[in-house]
Amino acid sequence: MVPSEIYTARVAAGELKPDDAQTAVLPEFDRIANELAKPVKRGFFRRAPDPIQGLYLWGGVGRGKSMLMDLFVSGLSVPARRVHFHAFMQEIHEAIHEARARGVDDPIKPVADAISDSVRCLAFDEMQITDITDAMIVGRLFEQLFAAGVVVVTTSNRVPDDLYKHGLNRDLFVPFIGLLKDKMVVHELASPTDYRQDRLAGSDVYFTPVDQKARAAMDAAWAALADGDGAPLTLRVKGHDLLIPRFHNGVARAKFFDLCGKHLGAADYLMLAETAKVLLLDDVPRLGRSNFNEAKRFVTLIDALYEAGTRLICSAAAAPELLYVEGEGTFEFERTSSRLREMQSADWGL
Ligand SMILES: Nc1ncnc2c1ncn2[C@@H]1O[C@H](COP(=O)(O)OP(=O)(O)O)[C@@H](O)[C@H]1O
Ligand SMILES: [Mg+2]
C-alpha cells in the first residue's frame, strides 16, 4: 500500500483524524514510495539508480511529521532505515573514527559506501544540526549518499535555511543547505492542530506516590505519546555520551537515577530538553540531605526542561512541595516545586 492508502485506512479505522495539511503532503510520500518500488535497472556499467527527490518535511511540534514518516517507512518494500538524526550522526562519527584508525585517507567515503550498499532510503526523524563536528561532515557525507542514489526523507522543526543557525563557521555549512534543497522537496506541514498537545490535554502528568497505579499511568502515557517501543538514544554532549534509555517520536523516558544519579550537568539537561518534546521521568524519590547532589541535578534538569518548554510527566514519591523539605537548598527548591506545579497545567509548554 502506498502512504495515502495507509493513511486513509487509518482514518477510516478511527486511529487518525483527517487533517488537510497532512493529506496535502501524502502525494509526495506516494511519489517517493512509487519511485522506490520500481526495479532498479542495472546495466553493464552498473550505475547508480536514477535520482529520486527526497522529502524534507518541517513544521511545528505535534503536527504529525514523525507519524507520517513512520507510516511511509512501514509501507516500503525496499531496504530502508528509520533513525533519529542524532543517533545516526553518532554512528557516523564512530564509523569515521574506525576508518581513520584503519589508516583510511578519506574516511567519509567507506562510511557512505557502507550505507548506500545496505539501504535505498534513509528516513531521519528530527534533523537538526547543533554541533560543529556534525556541521562539518554532513555536506560531504550527503553528497556521496545522494550520488549513490540513496533517497532521504527527513522531519525537522526548522526550515532548511535555519539549520545550524548562528553556528560556528556556518559559511562552511551553507552549501549543505543548497544540497538539501536541490535533492529534496521542502514541504511545510502547516497543520493548525498540535495532536500531541491534544493527547496531553486533560490528562494527569504528575503521579504520586510511586505505586502500581502510578506505574500503569506512566506506561499508558508512554503508549499514548510515543507510538512504539522506543529505543535507547545516545546524545553526544561536550565529548561524553548521554544515554536516554528510551526514546521515540520526540518522547523520552528515563528513571530519576538515570538522569540525576549520574555525573551529568546543565549541558546534558539542555541537550535532553532540546531533543525531547516530552520527558517521562519515573520514580522521583523524596530528596534531602542524603541525596543532596541528586536534588541539585534535579533542580538543573527542571530548569532546563522549563526553559525549553519540554513537557514533563513524572511519578514521584510526594507532591512537588513535599519532595525536598529538609537540607541545604530547600529555599532554592521552592522555585523548582513551583515550576513543577506550573508545568502541570494543561496549556503549559509545547
Ligand atoms: N491526524 C492525526 N490524528 C490523530 N493523532 C495524530 C494525527 N497526527 C498525529 N497524531 C498523533 O499526535 C502525536 C504527535 O505526532 P508526531 O508525528 O509525533 O508529531 P511531530 O513529529 O510533528 O512533532 C503522535 O502521537 C501522533 O500519533
Ligand atoms: Mg516528531
UniProtKB/TrEMBL annotation:
<dbReference type="GO" id="GO:0005524">
    <property type="term" value="F:ATP binding"/>
</dbReference>
<dbReference type="Pfam" id="PF03969">
    <property type="entry name" value="AFG1_ATPase"/>
</dbReference>
<dbReference type="InterPro" id="IPR027417">
    <property type="entry name" value="P-loop_NTPase"/>
</dbReference>
<keyword id="KW-0067">ATP-binding</keyword>
<keyword id="KW-0547">Nucleotide-binding</keyword>
<dbReference type="GO" id="GO:0016887">
    <property type="term" value="F:ATP hydrolysis activity"/>
</dbReference>
<dbReference type="InterPro" id="IPR005654">
    <property type="entry name" value="ATPase_AFG1-like"/>
</dbReference>
<dbReference type="GO" id="GO:0005737">
    <property type="term" value="C:cytoplasm"/>
</dbReference>
<protein>
    <submittedName>
        <fullName>AFG1-like ATPase</fullName>
    </submittedName>
</protein>
